[in-house]
Amino acid sequence: MVSSISYNKRTSWRFADQIPGAPASEFRVTGVPETPVVKQTIPGLGDVLFKLEHTCPTGSHKDRAAVFQISAARSEQASGVVIPSSGNAAISVAAAGAECGLPVYAFISPKTHRSKLNALLQFKPWVIICDQPVNRARNVSRRFGFPNLRPSRDDNAVKGFMSLGYELGEAFEDHRFSSVFIFTTSGATLTGIARAFQTLNQNGRISFMPELHAVQSGNATGIAACFEHVPKTGQTKGADPGFGGVQKSSLYPELLDHIRKSGGRGWYTNTSDADDMDRLLVSQRLETSPEGCCALAAVFRWQQSGGKGLPLVILTGKKYSGATNDTMLHHKRICYGNTYRQIESCIKRWRDE
């Protein structure tokens, strides 16, 4: 049985005075409403807290970074932004950009789930489908002067995710969870949470630092590899959660320091783990993305290895499934280009429309 712990419509901007460099109020797009925390008794585990980030407006915790990043870009009078993404970050940025009329150029992989592509196009960004979205987005950012909102390279993303840490701090006051588990690729979300926890601890708002656990899969395993054996790059399945994630991130040194000081660690998971946990969560009337399922799988391993206390699992995104609309692949806002010249031509044409 799910018991609701907290939920209201206060937004992420209520923490603005606690986040360094927050954009002035006149540049801010709508903040992210506070998401619920629920307690669930999981067979084989006992009580677990879940932070339901898949209830964010676009279905992902990436909304928190996006509203901060787009607001910052507006304050800097940007004429557009670029975002390389496996799906969720692009959707969040496109939604925030659409609210204020800021053009968004989203670079995504051909492997991106078609349902995510359809969700992305609802917010009318310009979409570039290419084999190297990170590199191509970087090229376009330099050529046109657009801010690159790639979370691992834009500290405004980390600052946006600090709001999640501060919300968790409020939940901690009542529930004193011992540990936090979250699926991690670039490390931006967990770094933001860690910075917020550190500030709360220094200010006496939380009495101790919960353990921080980074759960990884696919190609994004740089944190997990510091704690256990992981398959070599190229040996993972294309369908594994995190298949499009970065292999290394500039945030890893800071994040590893936070994790180790907290007493947490990194965990490697795979598609099989996600499938097992998906069936378990569905039976408990909770549905979430494969990444959230992997985070729960790590809790089982943590408990089996002697972990104690009340764990909190962050369910970072909603579950995408069902039929897809491949006619969207020919949408006028989509460009296919694996050379910079092709992509530049598309962007120039779009800007002239």
Write up what this structure looks like.
- This protein has 2 domains: 63-150 and 323-352, Rossmann fold; 162-269 and 283-320, Rossmann fold, CATH 3.40.50.1100.
- Helices cover 38% and strands 15% of the residues.
- It is built from 10 helices and 11 strands.
- The strands form 2 sheets. A 7-stranded mixed β-sheet has the order 1-2-3-10-7-8-9. It has a 4-stranded parallel β-sheet with strand order 4-5-6-11, with helices on both faces.
- α8 (271-283) crosses α9.
Return the average pLDDT rounded to an integer: 91
Largest sheet: 7 strands, mixed
Question: Which stretches of 5+ consecutive residues score pLDDT under 50?
Answer: 1-8
Helicity, as a percent range: 25-40%
Oligomer: single chain
CA-based gyration radius: 19 Å
Counting structural domains, the number is: 2
Examine the secondary-structure arrangement and name the CATH architecture of the largest domain.
3-Layer(aba) Sandwich
The tally of strands reads 11
Number of helices: 10
Which CATH top level class of the largest domain fits?
Alpha Beta
Overall SS class: alpha/beta
Strand neighbour order, sheet with most strands: 1-2-3-10-7-8-9
Overall shape: globular
Indicate the CATH topology of the largest domain.
Rossmann fold
Helix-strand string: EEEHEHEHEHHEHEHEHHEEH
Strand content: 15-25%
Distance between the termini: 53 Å
